[in-house]
Structures are given as C-alpha cells and as structure tokens.
Specification:
Layout lengths: L2 E7 L5 E7 L8 E3 L5 E9 L11 E6 L8
Parallel strand pairs: 1-5
Antiparallel strand pairs: 1-2, 3-4, 4-5
C-alpha cells in the first residue's frame, strides 16, 4: 500500500515537500529529499481522515542525521 506523506523540518516546523513511500517508514529511517539532502525520520504522525475520505494524512518530521564521529 502506497503512503503519501508530508515531510516536515523538525527544527522549524515548516513543511519541506510531499513524498510517496512504498510502505510506512519507521522512526530512524533515512532517505533523500528532492534536493539530495540525506535526512532521518524523528517522528511519524498519522492523523484522522477528513469526513467522507479514506486517506489519512501522514506527517514525517525529519532532521539531518547526526555525525557522531570526531575527526
């Protein structure tokens, strides 16, 4: 089942883009945005569908991955 989601920047709360996934991504999953930036999912929210609709809104809050390695 295809999932259509709105990608939201966790730092600013602003929507970044809409994206289609083959299945529901998990928290911690990494993927590339249209700009080529690698991001990881911090939080996934599934809302209630609008009256008369069958599709639930999905929001994926993302942040750039942390680089824990020290040079």
């Amino acid at each position: 089942m295809t999932v259509f989601a709105t990608i939201i920047n966790a730092a600013t709360g602003e929507p970044v883009q809409k994206m289609k996934f083959g299945r529901m991504p998990r928290v911690g999953a990494s993927f590339n945005l249209e700009t080529g930036e690698l991001v990881s999912a911090q939080r996934i929210e599934v809302g209630k569908p609008a009256p008369g609709k069958f599709i639930s809104p999905v929001s994926i809050w993302v942040a750039p991955p942390r680089n824990d390695r020290q040079p």
